Batch of 4 targets.
Target 1
Amino acid sequence: MPMPFIPGSRTEGLAYLFPGQGSQTVGMGVALSEFSTAARETWAEADSVLAMPLSRLCAEGSGADLADTVNTQPALLAVSIAAWRAATELLGQLPTPVGMAGHSMGEFSALVAAEAITFADGLRLVRERGRLMKEMGDRCPGRMAAVLGMKAQDLRVLCAQVAAETRTVVQVANDNHPTQQVISGTLQGVEEVSRQARSQGAQRVLPLAVSIAAHSPLMAPASPRWQATLNQISISPARVPVIGNTTAQPLADPEAIRTELGAQLEGGVLWRDSMCTLQGMGATAAVEFGSGSVLTGIQRKIDRKMPCFPLQNGEDLQRWQSWLRTQS
């Protein structure tokens, strides 16, 4: 389904954002499907591509099944593209953004929206990504924790010190905003960094409900198989620059995109820097396509003055449509 943009519109200051794992919730996508034919068709396509009732799992499945990363990742991609297509259906054309960014797995949603990869390939990729990550979690148990109120550079130094002293793995996986980072690594590494972070002034350390050390070297054994999977898909030039998680730089070239997706399995998510890159490119407002409003909340920590529009249902879409009319 083509998703045309409006070039040269007065809303060129838009950034389009796509959430990642942690934004899922049972019932996500239902309101969009009730509002939009395009959203319903997106779920039907996802069910067909994956040969499983993904739409039913999201609408009425158990929280445990939806939280299984093998299901979570394609489900989040599907709900983001359902929101994207519903917005396109409502507006006819979408304003051309300065760029797009997706948080962790959300980078795949951004690449589908930018027409660098097809929706079908995106679903297959994140399904396999989830399978490999789950396998690594079983083989090399790890954990993740959010650290609040500590400077990112101080936390990086602490992680490096603990890793060297304990000969274990721990690093900053997500630099989300000035007062929130996420660490990832072995059980011992994350526990020790969490303990020392508290003593060094961190306001809070919150263990995340995961048993996978995403965006850390514990994912390394899966890298060859992941790269082989990436090499099998066709990647086109992105119609709109997509900011890479691991570099915080705009990507459009197919091979640069392939390299980024390969590195992303182990590399950290430079979300705060990515948002600064988008603002440097001229972004003055953001739109979040998908489940929840996590990225909207993070952006308000980075820049409170930037308008943000999470799109989860028909009312959200119409609210954004009304705002767009005031800008034209």
Target 2
Amino acid sequence: MNETISTRDRIVEAARDLFLVNGYNGTGMSQIQTAAGVRGGSLYYFFPTKEDLLLAVLDWYRTHIWEGLLQPVYERISDPVERIFGVLDSYRQLLLMFEFELGCPIGNLALEVSNSHPGVRALLQSNFDNWIEAIEICIQDARDRFPKEIEPKQIALFTLAVLEGGLMLSRTSRSAEPFEDSIAVLRDYYERLIRDEISWSAPRQSPLSPHEL
């Protein structure tokens, strides 16, 4: 039983890494088989089609968001707002480390397969929802620092949109500047919200939205 689980896991991990580097369409089943070190029969026993393997990879990301993304940041940063920007900075480091070849694995796959493989959209959305929820929880943990009118989920969704757009622009230009500039404006937005809550004499607008910088 352990050997069977180990074989399946090796296949999923090999596919995950290859999809990240080469994309889904740029990765062949034979490449996955070689990278996983398994026989063709084992590969097709667990995953009769390539889309089955894609679903397994997306499920891996969905269930490993804590140890794969959040835990390394949360262990060194305790402030909930700074945790958000720590997570965002981890993507910046990924851009620089791999010279703009790699971005958000879920964002990449969403752009590549959401139209051609509608069966995977639900898992793509689930991954995005998990990310949004993690940021929303950070905002909720700092709720007393934000104006009461804000909707934490909307701010979390806005944060994800800034992240994905910044990554796409930086990968296209092969420069960290678009990503860094986008995150700097996002940071300013957060700081304005926090200042608005502590500056009780300042005029208020209700409801607040990401468009009101």
Target 3
Amino acid sequence: FKDKVNTPYSASEPEKFLSARSLERRVKQKIDIVPEDLPVDPANVNLVKNAGAKTFFTSRWMNCLLVEADLATVQQIQLLPQVSKIVLAAPGEKLAGGRIKKIRKRTSPENSGATGVQLEQLGLDRMQDEGYHGENKFVAVFDSGFQGVDAATPFQSIFLDGRLKYSFDFVGNSGNVYQYDNHGTEVFSVIGAKVAGAFTGGAYGADFFLAVTEDASSEYRVEEYNWLFAAEKADSAGVDIISTSLGYNEFDDPSMNYTASSLDGKTAVITQAATMAMQKGMIVVCSAGNEGSNSWHFITAPADANGILSIGGVDSQGLRAPFSSVGPTADNRIKPDVMALGLGSAVVKPNGAIASDNGTSFACPLVASLAAGVWQAYPLLTSKEVYEAIVMSADQAHNPDNLKGYGLPNFGAIKNFLEASEINDIMTIHPNPVSNSTVSVTLKRPMDEPLTVTTYDRLGRILSESILTVTWQNNPFQISVEEMPAGMYFVKLKSQSISKVIKLIKV
């Protein structure tokens, strides 16, 4: 539609279309309610319906309406003065309501797998040991179906605790998300499933929102609009994090295809939607794509969006999986953003069995889990600050590339990054004075380069010297002072980027 001039909704009364939790998220991050947030004018929807179309979902952000209509009706709708344009999203009837569709056959190794590697690789095990399992964070998962989630034992605590807050099937316009496909089941399990001693999801204590947006049996632009509708519902419900293991570049109708030049962060419908979701204060995490070994090669939309976390896949040794899509974006930004285990990822099947599967689809929910735990541990951060902490503390943040982005993030490194940001000097030593055997040295910004650490007494005699590389993972690092008698000493740090001397008192 052209505008919202006559809408009955107002930015001064946002409680009429946004939940209290959604408003709280915006207030905390100082995000204003703008005309883009106002619902579509109901009168415009009625005009289209009266023209003979079947009307379905609306989008506040794009001021549009999804309809089913024949060609004659489309021509009538085009004559309405309120309509600015009409876009073909898919051919044929798509929204009959609750139909069961053929399940896409998927292949995956059936060997049993444990979650130890995928948790340890990102420090999710430490995060959980410190008491952060995603409690009170609201995580949405958009996928192609969640078969078995309502019945399989590894998911039952979510239902018993009342932590499934919302679910909807935008593909079939039904309330049943437990159909179609098992891809969403496996993806969701990486975050939310729990089997004592056998399988641990990354943020299994969170609240959840499940949406079917991907049509497993076909590929049309309507799926991008489904994602948009789901993202707006997530926004209004107060979701904190969206995890989406979906990507689009080629469609069953070639006229809808995207090209590499479309990956500019603003062209694809789903990329626009993901950007808007991020701007509303949500963290958006998506899979980078599995195109690295084929002719496309690059990431898929919405991984090109600026400010969302696009996730590539690595193996258990941290090496990039060959199938993991690469960057850059069309406007030459680094992508993917960070990496996680995508080769041999432990998942739960619809029947509750533990298996393994491959793809950036399973790397994505690991980073979404990390984001949930970080935000739980540091609740005063904004979504953008959580994004920055995850990216800028990753293990190749000082030398990012378009194969692995900024590298592997880690909960411990993120904590070090956030706590070091409070330091005013280049480095600090704690405790100082010191009475025990070691001191901790914290750099405000480790540069991932050789650092010479020299300890000497007040007469300038060198007592110890070592060369090490400091990253966010090992910042702060320890210096032994056990053999030093009480007195005044000096610690000198020197690298290409810094040169600093601090006085140290041993008591």
Target 4
Amino acid sequence: MHSSARIAVGGLFIALLLVGMPDRAQAQVQVTAPSGVDIFVIAAKPKVRVATVGTDGTANVAANATAPGTELQVVIVRCAGTMSIVLIERGRTDPDCENAPAGEQPRCNCDPSGVFIVWGRDTAITVSQSGQVTLGGGQTTTAGGGFGDIGWIVDIDVARASQADADNNCDGLKQGLGAEGFNVACTSDGTVRAFSADVGVTFARFFAVKVGYLSLGQVTIDATATRPPVTFTADGHFGSARGVTVVGAVRVTAAGPVVVFVEGGVWRWSAASGSRLEVRVNNQLEASEDLAQDNSSVDPIAGAGVEYWFTPRIGVSGGVRVAWLGAKSTGPEGDVDKRFTVLFVGLKLGWR
């Protein structure tokens, strides 16, 4: 890569980081609620009171309340007739909401609203006198998560893909020609480079639908069969399989910036395969033949992995995918029956 190109790529990456980095001086949540309601945060520190709703019915939760990108659930807590608002990091609990010992009444009545906010992205919530919670845009999110909080996501991944049964590429030749007394040497490279890119939408906190592109590198096979004075040689390939993918994903925040996901869908792929066969007698070429075939199909694709978000807009991911390739053919190369395991790492952009 030329120096100017490296500078341009580096500048783009820095720009993405700057775009993705929340402004801590401005990162705050404005809460609209009945006057006098206390607001608490439970994140890296124990339960801390961070604000009280003023006589104008609003309060601002300060920028240093928690780390950017932290996902917080809004919980309405009522103790002795007094309501408070508690923002609890996913995976943590409010000690006032834990079960009371046997025979005792719970200290407080705690009502998880089902509304989640991401610190540095969601900037306002409203809580009514009855405890109903809405996001800043006025879209009510019901318990369990609703469809009001829609985001977007972009994945760019590089990978290594391995054909699950690469040894089978040589088995047929070894068995067939070996039975005829030929000494067969055969190698097959079933580990190839891969690349994918996806764009999609996230909704209901847990779900995403993505459309993308997947490319798997070329698989090759080289074989030589000798029974003096005859020598057969075969050089074959299954060309790069490329196509459009459509997948649905389930995404769950494990802790803070860590998100685990599983996905599944289909891809429409195409690839060209071919081979060259030669027959030599006493090292003299007696015959040769070139074979070629185009293949395509719609087959399943599935995967799972982990994301880590540095900010609500930029992160990295890694995981494994399985891509199936199966196509019926009347061509000289025969049917396609392959499965690739793809180990990937990549960059993620979006509002998660």
